[in-house]
């Protein structure tokens, strides 16, 4: 049982900083003590130095800031190599780039190679947990889980279900999609730190029979995740209205098949109405706000005021390859600007909460990840406020925690991630990766 101690500035959370100003807990000279992959204590160095065991390694990171590992609640690993592909909006982008790229994942070699690169890229950005879309091929999910298990990351992923309105080469059937998903659930859900997400791509690419199969799987496995897209783009919303004329709204299609519940996470949620938002709040269904993607594809602006008024759970996500960065810091940068466009001031402190403890709570994983509390799995990021000459000049003038975090969010990216730890093991070192 070896103990390690990390002495640094610390930021962790006991709740939503928008609800209570004391919810962000900051230690100027703090320490995180880790044993067997879990945090055993965290707090002021002066109070805890006596708890550091004789013989423990003490890492001196006093010029750095430790925060809980970032949680990206919506990302497509097969789209890694097609990030930054231009198209006039979502539907042409899917047809022109996405579907042809995803075809390649029938090949285990392509899937394995991309999954390993993807996981390393997440870690280089300080992301220790993600909700990941694979492709329709079940081997694409095996490849992702294998790569994430090799780093002992807490990862949530699923095989895409898609039985219509996509090329023949990417189609499953209600039965094959059900069987493959059931097999993957039994192989990967709660296998070490891996967890399964049932993944109907979005309502237009699933028949009613496939959505019924999803309903059955969701009922049979109450603790798996569900992920899909909703109300991202106006052309898509119109299309769903034509395909499901009996449903009140796009979100209502998922409701009809029992797919709104705790641990269900929907990407985008731009074109929802108040009744939809209320339904999300009532059912504990989570919105994954993807600002870099929504700006890139011109999908629309997420409404923070309405989301907050409805009390629906909100999280932040990259949505790579629609999203233009793997970095949750860059995602915060764009989230702040999108909120500003709606007249809402989203503080950096709250964005750090949304990307850590807030996401963990929304995903029903608060007892495992998202904070530096004792017993938490030791997933954390060591941020470097002096990562670039500009960051160094700006953070030297920061007069509050909010100003420090704001500079990191607006100016930071993978360069600001000094090290990343998953379950207490160092899984990324910026300076070693550079060599
Ligand atoms: N809607 C359906 N599939 C996708 C996808 O791959 N990316 C995005 N952004 N939206 C989608
Ligand atoms: Zn997406």
In the CATH scheme, what's the topology name of the largest domain?
Answer: TIM Barrel
| CATH level 1 name of the largest domain | Alpha Beta
Please give the CATH architecture of the largest domain.
Alpha-Beta Barrel
Largest sheet: 9 strands, parallel
Query: What's the structural domain tally?
Result: 2
For this structure, the quaternary state is single chain
Low-confidence stretches: none
Tally of DSSP β-strands: 16
Mean pLDDT: 97
Estimate the helix proportion, in percent: 25-40%
Q: Given the structure, what is the number of helices?
A: 17
Overall radius of gyration: 21 Å
**Structure ligands:** guanine, zinc ion
What does it look like?
With 435 residues, the chain is of the alpha/beta class. The protein has two domains: 3-68 and 371-434, Roll (Urease, subunit C, domain 1), CATH 2.30.40; 70-346, TIM Barrel, CATH 3.20.20. The protein is 38% helix and 23% strand. It is built from 17 helices and 16 strands. The chain has helices spanning 45-48, 90-103, 108-124, 138-150, 174-188, 208-220, 234-243, 250-256, 274-283, 291-296, 304-310, 328-341, 348-354, 357-362, 389-396, 401-411, 430-434; strands spanning 3-13, 24-35, 38-44, 57-68, 70-76, 127-133, 155-158, 160-161, 194-200, 225-230, 264-268, 286-289, 314-316, 380-383, 417-422, 425-429. Helix 4 (138-150) packs parallel to helix 5 (174-188), helix 12 packs across helix 16 (401-411) and helix 13 (348-354) packs across helix 16. The chain is globular, with a radius of gyration of 21 Å. The two termini are 31 Å apart. It binds guanine (GUN) and zinc ion. Zinc ion binds next to strand 5.
């Amino acid at each position: 049982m070896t103990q390690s101690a990390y002495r640094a500035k610390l930021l962790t959370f006991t709740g939503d900083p928008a609800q209570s100003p004391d919810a962000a807990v900051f230690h100027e000279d703090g320490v995180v003590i880790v044993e067997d992959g879990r945090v055993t204590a965290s707090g002021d160095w002066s109070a805890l130095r006596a708890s550091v065991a004789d013989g423990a390694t003490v890492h001196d990171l006093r010029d750095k800031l430790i925060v809980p590992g970032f949680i990206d609640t919506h990302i497509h690993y097969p789209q890694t190599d097609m990030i930054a592909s231009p198209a006039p909006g979502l539907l042409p982008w899917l047809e022109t780039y996405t579907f042809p790229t995803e075809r390649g994942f029938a090949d285990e070699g392509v899937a394995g190679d991309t999954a390993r690169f993807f996981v390393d890229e997440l870690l280089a950005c300080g992301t220790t947990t993600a909700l990941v879309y694979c492709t329709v091929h079940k081997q694409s999910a095996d490849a992702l889980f294998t790569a994430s298990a090799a780093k002992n990351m807490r990862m949530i992923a699923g095989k895409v279900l898609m039985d219509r309105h996509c090329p023949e080469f990417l189609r499953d059937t209600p039965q094959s999609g059900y069987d493959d998903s059931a097999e993957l659930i039994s192989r990967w859900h709660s296998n070490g730190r891996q967890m399964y997400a049932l993944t109907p791509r979005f309502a237009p690419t699933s028949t009613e029979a496939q959505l019924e199969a999803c309903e059955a799987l969701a009922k049979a496995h109450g603790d798996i995740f569900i992920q899909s897209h909703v109300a991202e783009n106006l052309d898509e919303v119109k299309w769903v209205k034509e395909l499901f004329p009996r449903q009140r709204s796009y979100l209502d299609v998922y409701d009809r098949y029992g797919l709104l519940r705790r641990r269900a996470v929907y990407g985008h949620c731009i074109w929802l109405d108040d009744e939809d938002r209320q339904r999300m709040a009532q059912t504990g269904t989570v919105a994954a706000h993807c600002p870099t993607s929504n700006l890139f594809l011109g999908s629309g602006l997420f409404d923070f005021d309405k989301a907050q008024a409805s009390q629906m759970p909100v999280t932040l996500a990259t949505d790579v390859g629609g999203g233009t960065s793997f970095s949750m810091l860059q995602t915060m940068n764009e989230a702040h600007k999108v909120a500003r466009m709606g007249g809402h001031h989203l503080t950096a402190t709250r964005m750090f909460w949304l990307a850590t403890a807030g996401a963990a709570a929304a995903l029903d994983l608060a007892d495992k990840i998202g904070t530096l509390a004792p017993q938490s799995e030791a997933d954390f990021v060591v941020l470097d406020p002096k990562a670039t000459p500009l960051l160094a000049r700006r953070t030297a003038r920061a007069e509050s925690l909010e100003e420090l975090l704001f500079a990191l969010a607006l100016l930071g990216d993978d360069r600001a991630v000094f090290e990343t730890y998953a379950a207490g093991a160092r899984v990324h070192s910026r300076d070693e990766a550079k060599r």
